[in-house]
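Bench log. Compound arrived from synthesis this morning; before running ITC I wanted a structural hypothesis for how zinc ion sits in the protein. Inputs:
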Amino acid sequence: MTFRYELLRTDPSTGARRGTFHTPHGPVQTPGFMPVGTQGTVKGLTIDQVAGTGAEMILGNTYHLALRPGPETVRALGGLHAMFGWEGPILTDSGGFQIFSLKDINKITEHSVVFRSHIDGAIIDLTPERSIEIQEALGSDVAMVLDHVVALPAEPDEVQMAMERSIRWAERCLNAAGRSDQARFAIVQGGLDVPLRVQCARELSSMGFEGYAVGGLSVGEAPAEMYRITGATTPELPTDKPRYLMGVGRPVDLLESVMRGIDLFDCVMPTRNGRNGLAFTDLGPIKIRNAKHRHATEPLEPECPCLACTRHTRGYLRHLFIAGEMLGPILMSLHNLTYYQRLMQGAREAIEAGTLAEYVAEKKRGWGIS
Ligand SMILES: [Zn+2]
């Protein structure tokens, strides 16, 4: 089989899974974190730097890549792997999440979602079939189905309607798919309603996707709600397929979700926050622009192997931000991605050793979260 999820160990006390997701571009150790390459680049970093953080799989945004440079240009440049210069696996989203966040300019029907390009104003009619066609042209290893995302809070009727439509659209995506070297992941919807989530997970599980995502979370609900829904959804998904929690999140959200059986994550937080001068560490976030770092000679984090920490002081990093130098955001993004990868590596080792609960408790103590 081209795609295979190998379950290596399940943590008996939490439900966390240690596994390997095999793809045509190599294996991904799970739990794992995918850096986000929105427009064909993990902002500010070279592809070697991204690989150097320990990342094995990256994410590309179909919405952005479909508008610019366009799927035919990506295909002409040899597909996403050749265009990025990334030899490992790549996952593309369906474009749905970005489109649905443009609330005032889209029209959703059973057929498609119609929206206006933010680049040139062109009207685009995105059907589930077209989303798959674009992702096949991009040539990612994993394509996400187009789903109907609702902003929360929403009326129960609306959440149910969107969930049921997401199932029908998932089936249309599956029927439209033609590439044998591309996996399709379905997306569980259903808002914060456990019975709807369970129904959606069960129906999608019977359809034979190569992987399953939990979508529509981290959209403003309380973290406890997100954990509750994730924890209620994963037991309904096949144990022999990877589970991906989309767009999550903070370091604590990753660990809480690993304990609820999630295998894959993506989020812009490490890079976006890095660009804005915030570093994640085991002792909580550091705002590097803060005046107290002016003369600080210590690194962001003493044990971190990244370039920012092994070669530079907090005082220098602060100077780069105050002076508006581009190296500041680069080094902070590098540190944050390294931090996320080390966090996941630590989780994998803890699952193997049977000490995940202790690992999570220790991290939370450091972050000051009870
Ligand atoms: Zn570092």
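What the model suggests: The chain has 15 helices and 17 strands. The pocket of zinc ion is lined by residues 300-301, 304, 306, 308-309, 335, 338 (CB under 6 Å).
ITC booked for Thursday regardless.
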